[in-house]
Amino acid sequence: MSKQANPMDKITGHFRNKISGEMSSIYVEEWDLKIYYKNSNTLQEEGRLIELAQKNKTVEALVETLIIKARNEDGTKMFKPADRTVLLNEADPSTLIKAVGNMNSTLEVDMEEAEKN
Predict the structure, then answer these.
(1) pTM of the predicted structure, to 2 decimals
(2) Where are the domains of the chain?
(3) What fold characterizes domain 23-116?
(4) Lowest-pLDDT range, 5-9, 22-26, 96-100?
(5) Which are the contacts of 52, defined by CB distance < 8 A and separation ≥ 6?
(6) C-alpha distance from residue 74 to each of 23, 81, 110 (Å)
(7) Phi and psi dihedrals of 113, rounded to 5?
């Protein structure tokens, strides 16, 4: 009888493979900024976004999405939680909405392609 792998190793290994994969990117012309992002979030991060959306805090959820997803080319986070207030009060809302929308639409297209395969 062969030794069965620990289910937690399978679960965490799957997620590690998913988040360590290639990053996507968008270019935000208005900010002259290339934003890289990973195609997965942790469950805790997703929970935070869902919580904000359920409370009808759409603007806060958009900013939180940018803070969670945006990365530098080397994979480090582009924004810190302390940037939240500045992004809420001093960033062009239409540009922020467009940037987050582009990240999310790219993810939706990727998911649709993955589901077809």
Answers:
(1) 0.75
(2) 23-116
(3) rbstp2171 (3.30.2220)
(4) 5-9
(5) 58, 60, 61, 64
(6) 10, 19, 22
(7) -65, -40
- Rounded Cα distance between 88 and 67, Å, is 11
- Determine the number of helices (DSSP H) and then strands (DSSP E) in the chain: 5, 3
Q: What does the block give as tokens for 96? A: 């922020």
Write b or e for each residue in 5-29: b if 16 or more Cβ atoms lie within 10 A of its Cβ, otherwise e. eeeeeeeeeeeeeeeeeebbebebe
What tens digit of pLDDT does each residue of 65-77 get?
999 999 999 989 9
Show the tokens assigned to 64.
């939180």
Average pLDDT across the chain, whole number: 84
